[in-house]
Amino acid sequence: MKVNTNDLKWYGRYSDLDGIRYFDYSASGFEFCFTGKKAVATILSDPELFDDNTKGVIGVYVSELSSNDEYKGTSFWEHFPQNLTNRFILLEKENVCTLFESDEEKTVLIKVLKLSEVNFGCAGFKSLEIDGKLIAPQTGVLGAGVGDCDSKLKLEVIGDSITCGYGIEGVFEKDVFTTKQQRPDLAYGFLTAKNLGLEFNLVSWSGIGIISKYVDASVEVPDTTVVMPSVWPYVDKSLSLRRGLEPVVWNEENFSPDIVVIHLGTNDASFVRNHEDRRLAYVCGLRQFLEAIHRRSPKAKICCCLGVMGQDLCASVEEAVNQFHGDFKNVPVKAVKFPVQLDEDGIGADWHPSAKTHEKIAKILFDALKEWV
After folding, report:
1. 289: helix, coil or strand?
2. Distance of alpha carbon 104 from alpha carbon 365, whole angstroms
3. With bands split at pLDDT 50, 70 and 90, how would you rate the model's confidence at 147?
4. Which residues pair with 200 in a beta bridge?
5. What is the per-residue pLDDT across 18-68, written as a single tens digit (0 to 9) for each?
6. CA–CA distances in Å: residue 315 to residues 80, 310, 337
7. Which residues pair with 353 in a beta bridge?
């Protein structure tokens, strides 16, 4: 049986190009429930544009259900398994991925999520074939994604490599980074959404900042080729530019967040380096970004956090938050300072936080946001 794109429940930002639905941001993807023996998806990618360390990766999560009635379809977290079931590295332009296979007929709920981030290899849904029967949810609507779950509060997390789960499965000074190590499902943003029971979108990109990408200590000018204020407004700017297309603005109606978390500044700090004029530029840029978020999502509460990979700009984050609050006094907004990661908790590839550190800062963020839920 062939399953169509709109027969699936979609999560995160996605874009439709030439009959293919691309789900490229970290932890974006789809789910379906069926009774049968086998499910095979065909996922398109662009491996020719990336080396062996930066190809696209998807993860598969399978939960066995006792009956069809168990599938309600009202929350991402419904029957979400504790562990990743399988993953596929998208080595080909067209990848045939067996999502589930069993000798006996079973009822299973399957989620497919992008584990690698948006600026590396893409993931495009072409087709899904199941040997069995598709199960419709008892409640909820297929096709349009989390926007259908109106009873659930929604969280948008805007960040850099830390939000992407960069290097979580790598070891500092032992492993070089690869997309195979990326685990957004073990990172603080995903864990916070899970702990609070919130639907979520991750808008994250490694090396990105507010006024500059990460730069070497010898560089004296900001790298503005990719900064979050110029990426965040669009559905999938990375894919659009690779295809030579004009980026499409993200439709707020597809996912209107109740809470927005911003984790940006780690890469800006590589350029600021205690220069007061650069620090003030960061404060101004973050203040303006807060306003842009408020204008797009006027009902959203906003939280800015920073610190796990360095605290040079934590006071500047608080300064930007205070400036914004001075102009928009009715908007709930706060700053959260994370502790710097500890060697004893393990360090991931390229000195990025380990899974244990992510659990710690997710708990801090949970405590900061729970009064808003």
Report:
1. helix
2. 43
3. very low
4. 155
5. 999 999 999 999 999 999 999 999 999 999 999 999 999 999 999 999 999
6. 37, 12, 9
7. 347
- 3 state DSSP class of 125: strand
Which residues, in sequence order, are CB contacts of 294 under 8 Å at separation 6+? 300, 302, 324, 328, 331
Q: How far apart are CA 259 and CA 193, in angstroms?
A: 10
What the block records as the tokens of 319 is: 């300064």
> pLDDT averaged over the chain?
95
> What residues does 249 pair with on adjacent strands?
234
Q: Which of 20, 10, 7 is nearest to 134 (CA)?
A: 7
Q: What is the DSSP string of 128-179?
A: EEEEEEE---SSS-SSSGGGG-TTS-EEEEEESHHHHTTTTTS-TTT----G
Helix (H, G, I), strand (E, B) or coil at 97: strand
Please, what is the Cα angle at 265 between 372 and 190, to 5 degrees?
45
Q: Which residues of 181-206 are buried (b: 16+ CB within 10 A; e: fewer)?
A: bbbbbbbbbbbbbbbbebbbbbbbbb
Helix/strand/coil percentages in the chain, nearest 5: 30, 30, 45
pTM, entire model: 0.95
pLDDT digits (tens, 9 = 90+) for 345-363: 999 999 999 999 999 999 9
> In whole angstroms, how far apart are CA 36 and each of 99, 108, 132, 133, 268?
12, 8, 4, 6, 50
Q: What amino acid occupies position 320?
A: A
Q: What average pLDDT score do residues 155-182 get?
A: 97
Write out the two tokens for 49.
């544009």
Q: Phi, psi (5° rounding) for residue 61?
A: -125, 120
Gyration radius of the chain's alpha carbons: 20
Residue 150: pLDDT band with limits 50, 70, 90? very low
List the Cα angle 114/226/234 in 5-degree steps: 60
DSSP, collapsed to helix, strand or coil, labels residue 114 as strand
